[in-house]
Structures are given as structure tokens and as C-alpha cells.
Design a protein that fits this description.
CATH class of chain B: Alpha Beta
Number of domains of chain A: 1
Largest sheet of chain A: 5 strands, parallel
Distance between the termini of chain A: 18 Å
CATH superfamily of chain A: DsrEFH-like
Largest sheet of chain B: 5 strands, parallel
CATH architecture of chain B: 3-Layer(aba) Sandwich
CATH class of chain A: Alpha Beta
Helix content of chain A: 10-25%
Strand content of chain A: 25-35%
CATH architecture of chain A: 3-Layer(aba) Sandwich
Structural class of chain A: alpha/beta
Number of helices of chain B: 4
Strand order of the largest sheet of chain A: 6-5-2-1-7
Largest interface: A-B, 16 and 20 residues
CATH topology of chain B: Hypothetical Protein Ychn, Chain: A
Oligomer: heterodimer
Strand order of the largest sheet of chain B: 4-3-2-1-5
Number of domains of chain B: 1
Strand content of chain B: 15-25%
Chain lengths: ~100, ~120
């Protein structure tokens, strides 16, 4: 199954995401979830980025938090709403919102 | 092109998930897809008419009207709306009122479904 997860928070959802796996997995960071793509706690980036998945972050939610492309981890692709629609329809089948 | 159904249970102000659902709906329309939106729980506030657009405040009425004009079917959960004191006469014209079966039917006939949970 091709599974796409919308991660819209920073702290509260990680244990669920950690348990999820799929033939093809995509994590789309939105709202406060964008901090998974940018933050470094004690020098370490988010452990979600260790998962065998593709990572995306919503440009608009980065901007509203004063974050720039330079802040984003290299493993994460910056996308806009149109890209998210294409991901939903073309790259993944099932969608989860956490 | 496909059909996307968005179910939104999040409130208008605070969680920003409702804003996200409206923007995603617009983006999908722009890409030529058909879109349905189901509003339940606190999201039923979204279809209330006469919202005053305050600066830096989430405001959905403009979006709702735009989406309706572009052919999006938007439906409110009647029970959730009434439970919150929202009467049909107070909602934006064109927003349907129904029960969960409307949402299930749309889900069944959609290519993709995004179910956006509440707070």
C-alpha cells in the first residue's frame, strides 16, 4: 500500500508515526509539523526523518513560522498546495491525518 | 482527473486545520479535480453566514462562497450544527444539510479521501 501521512503537530504524534509502515510511505509536514523538517534538538534532527519514507514540508506553513528553505533538512522536499494535491492523487493511495 | 473528498472536524479558529482543508480544496480544483467537503463537529461553524473578517483571524466565509461558486459540494452535519445552535437559515446559501450517509456516499465514490480530525 502507498500511504501518505499528514503530520500537523510536532510533539504529540510521533509515537503513532513510528508504528506505521507501508510499501511506500510519505510524510507531509504541515502546520506545527513543519518543525520536524527544521528543528535540531541537542544537535540532532527529528527522529521521524530516520524512517524509510519520502518527506515533504508545506512552504506556506514554513513561511508563516518565519522559516526559510535554508532551515529545511536536506532529506525534506519543500512543496506547495498544488504539489500536495499531485502527491495525493499520483503518488499515494491512502491518506492519514495525525 | 479525480474526485477528492475532504472531511473536516476541526474548528474555525486555533487549529488551522480548517484553513488547510479550504486551501487544499482550492488547490485540487485548480488542478481540475472534483471536490466534496463534509463539515462535522466544530467545523460546522465554518458555514455560518455573516462572519466578520477580523485581521489575523481565520475567516472562511469568503472561501466557502468561492468554492461553492466553483462547483464544490459542501455539506454540514445537521446534528452537529444544531447541537452548536447553528440553524440552517444562518448558514451560507448553497451549503447542504445532511447526515453521515452523505459523507459515506461521497467517500465511496471518491478517488482520494482526506479525513481531518478535530481538536
Amino acid at each position: 500500500m502507498k500511504l501518505c501521512i499528514f503530520v500537523n503537530d510536532f510533539k504529540t504524534v510521533t509515537d503513532t508515526v513510528e508504528r506505521l509502515s507501508a510499501e511506500k510511505l510519505g510524510l507531509i509536514f504541515i502546520q506545527n509539523g513543519v518543525f520536524h523538517a527544521t528543528i535540531k534538538e541537542n544537535g540532532k534532527s527529528s527522529h521521524l526523518l530516520e524512517k524509510p519514507a519520502s518527506f515533504y514540508v508545506l512552504a506556506e506553513d514554513l513561511a508563516t513560522r518565519g522559516l526559510t528553505d535554508a532551515d529545511v533538512d536536506k532529506r525534506v522536499k519543500i512543496v506547495n498546495y498544488g504539489d500536495v494535491v499531485d502527491l495525493i492523487f499520483n503518488e499515494y493511495e491512502k491518506i492519514i491525518w495525525l | 482527473m479525480g474526485t477528492l473528498t475532504i472531511g473536516c472536524f476541526a474548528s474555525l479558529v486555533g487549529s488551522k486545520s480548517l484553513d488547510f482543508s479550504l486551501k487544499l480544496a482550492k488547490a485540487a480544483l485548480d488542478k481540475g479535480h472534483k471536490v466534496n467537503i463534509w463539515l462535522s463537529s466544530n467545523a460546522t461553524i465554518m458555514a455560518k453566514a455573516n462572519q466578520k473578517h477580523l485581521k489575523d483571524y481565520s475567516h472562511s466565509e469568503k472561501y466557502v462562497r468561492e468554492l461553492l461558486e466553483r462547483g464544490v459540494e459542501i455539506c454540514e452535519c445537521e446534528a452537529c450544527a444544531l447541537a452548536r445552535g447553528i440553524q440552517k437559515a444562518e448558514t451560507v446559501e448553497g451549503v447542504e444539510w445532511s447526515a453521515m450517509h452523505w459523507y459515506l456516499a461521497k467517500i465511496y465514490n471518491s478517488d482520494r479521501v482526506v479525513h481531518i480530525g478535530g481538536e
